[in-house]
Design brief:
Shape: globular
Distance between the termini: 21 Å
Number of domains: 2
Number of strands: 6
Strand content: 5-15%
Helix content: 40-55%
Order of helices and strands: EHEEHEHHHHHHHEHHHHEHH
Radius of gyration: 20 Å
Strand order of the largest sheet: 3-2-4-1-5-6
Number of helices: 15
Structural class: alpha/beta
CATH architecture of the largest domain: 3-Layer(aba) Sandwich
CATH class of the largest domain: Alpha Beta
Length: 338
């Protein structure tokens, strides 16, 4: 397989925003970095956990020393702060406008589907509620704790039935036993939005910028071994120490960040509640499930031009290609679509 660089076609130059999406472990970040460097652009992260400071290894942030260009929407808040899609929308759009104002190309990259839509689509959040959230994050945390207590007291089925009365469209999309998602639906109601509107089809949403959407596709039988390698590497380079450092700053009380895959499992290891091997196995399983959900989400968006990278990663797993070779090959394929 040839991995030589090819020059970008002239048609790539006037694009305003390029979005690179897909499941975790497919190489989005490396591709976005390489493309932004090629275009003279800058990267905007669309990852709901990369906004948190100190959560570096487990969220697969590109290390500062390995970044070819400037990055945006990374390390915005401490883990104890609840950061919403509405707040992300403001940060991401500000980054887009800033990058464009300097004549550069924004390259948005991430696997959090709602964040991608919040940044690029005609997607509105209640402004008054957003102001309240920014002014008093403590109130938001208190509201979530109240909902969690209410769910515990009522039981999952009764709590879901309450949502059914308040927001039947959203309730129809959520399994009664998925208490966390029911809580999220109630939170969105309080923000002037709804779970249903954020998880409906893509046909009603139009981009507010001129955007080209690209997705990286890797078949499960290839992706899952990649995920296992990735998790092992995270543990090898210090994920447990990263979690230990976060706990010392109160991470165990973090509402949103504390639910991140790779972190919540290791908190229990450090608490002595489970063995490291058990936690690592659970991280791998949770990551595989998350990748499946991401794939389902993005496959609904007909705007995305898909790049099948299964063959490239098969050669990587067979030690026929290096990580740099993979990035080069994927960049070459994307450039052919521009």
């Amino acid at each position: 397989m040839s991995t030589e660089h090819q020059p970008l076609p002239k048609t790539a130059q006037p694009l305003e925003v390029i979005a690179i999406v897909g499941a975790t472990g497919t190489g989005k970040s490396a591709l976005a970095d390489a493309l932004a460097a090629k275009l003279g652009g800058e990267v905007i992260s669309a990852d709901s956990m990369q906004v948190y400071r100190g959560m570096d290894i487990g969220t697969a942030k590109v290390p500062v020393g390995e970044r070819s260009v400037r990055y945006h929407c990374i390390d915005l808040v401490d883990p104890g702060i609840t950061f919403t899609a509405a707040l992300y929308q403001q940060a991401a759009r500000s980054a887009v406008e800033d990058i464009m104002s300097r004549g550069k190309t924004p390259v948005l990259c991430g696997g959090t589907g709602l964040y991608v839509r919040a940044a690029l689509d005609d997607f509105c959040f209640d402004e008054s509620r957003l102001a309240e959230l920014k002014a008093s994050n403590a109130d938001f945390l208190s509201r979530r704790e109240d909902l969690k207590q209410q769910a515990s007291e009522m039981g999952a089925v009764a709590f879901h039935a309450l949502l059914q009365r308040e927001d039947p469209e959203s309730a129809a999309l959520i399994h009664p036993n998925n208490v966390r998602r029911v809580i999220r639906a109630f939170e969105l109601l309080g923000q002037g939005s709804s779970y249903a509107s954020q998880h409906s089809g893509f046909s009603d949403f139009k981009a507010v910028y001129r955007v080209r959407f690209f997705g990286l596709m890797v078949e499960p039988e290839v992706l899952y071994p990649l995920i296992e390698q990735r998790v092992d590497k995270m543990v090898e380079v210090g994920l447990l120490d990263e979690v230990r450092n976060l706990i010392e700053t109160g991470f165990s009380q973090a509402i949103t960040a504390g639910q991140a895959i790779g972190y919540k499992e290791l908190v229990s290891v450090l608490a002595g509640d489970r063995l490291l091997a058990e936690a690592v196995a659970e991280i791998k399983q949770s990551t595989r499930r998350y990748a499946k959900r991401q794939r389902t989400w993005f496959k609904r968006d007909a705007r995305i031009s898909w790049i099948d990278a299964s063959d490239v990663y098969t050669e990587y797993l067979d030690s026929k290609l290096s990580a740099d070779d993979v990035s080069t090959a994927l960049l070459q394929r994307l450039c052919c679509l521009l």
